[in-house]
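**Sequence with structure:**
===
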Amino acid sequence: MMQRIEFYDDFRNYLRDFYGEQKKRFPHFSYRYFCIKAGLKSPSHFIEIIDGKRKLTSKMLGSFIQGLGLTESDARYFTTLVNFNQSKNSTEKQQLLEQIRGLKRKVKQALVSTNYYEYYSKWYNIIIRELACLIDWNDEYELLAKSIVPPIKKNEARESVEFLINAGFLRKEGSRYVQTEPAITSGSEVCSLGIRSYNRFMAERAQKAIEEFPTTERDIQSLTIGISKESFGLIKQEMQEFLSRVVRIVDDDKSADQVYNVNVHLFPMSLPQAGKEPRDE
């Protein structure tokens, strides 16, 4: 299983694992596809760099970051790691190593156990885990319940908070609630009914959000496209990227034989807090 980028001390191992992970998830993935996505001319560049037969030059670095789909912080780490691995100067390598240590992510992700079915089976658990730490509700469960969109019952809010504390997702410090882990991931092995129930509810909420929220508070776009089976596999890979990436794949598809609908949703799940100061990141 591929690790987060900051666990790697050799960028070639990261590239190797990236390719293996993508190939496993998307059978259509290839060196050629990566190079098209990255804007590189030769499919051999990727494999030659992995094998150490070619250096990853500063000229190609931006293209690789684009092809890998790295976030800004991960791109900084990858760039520093590339420079560290390819440097021949011991002083420079020491300086780059210090930079790498400084770039390692301070926030770790907690892996939700497959036993935590209830966390996902009740959609509002996920919302309350965030909201309980954001607003001043002073254990007024009715206030907490009504701050969620759509609102839930007072006893549901109380039971959810109790579950989150007992299961180790939240803890109370004085009158405040804090998350025991800043980030949570379900993990690839979590394919439970709880996940399906949560996703189903969110899909229903996305439909209702079109009418319930003005465009200034939500971003819901829809694109009806004709694509081939091969492009369907590629588009699944692109789902987390901006919708324009899908448009580019459709434009390049010359053998469309079926119609699909692709949706991207962004909408609020809690009420805005008046006078609330933004948190420092």
User: Anything to note?
Assistant: Residues 111-185 form a domain with the Arc Repressor Mutant, subunit A fold (CATH 1.10.10).
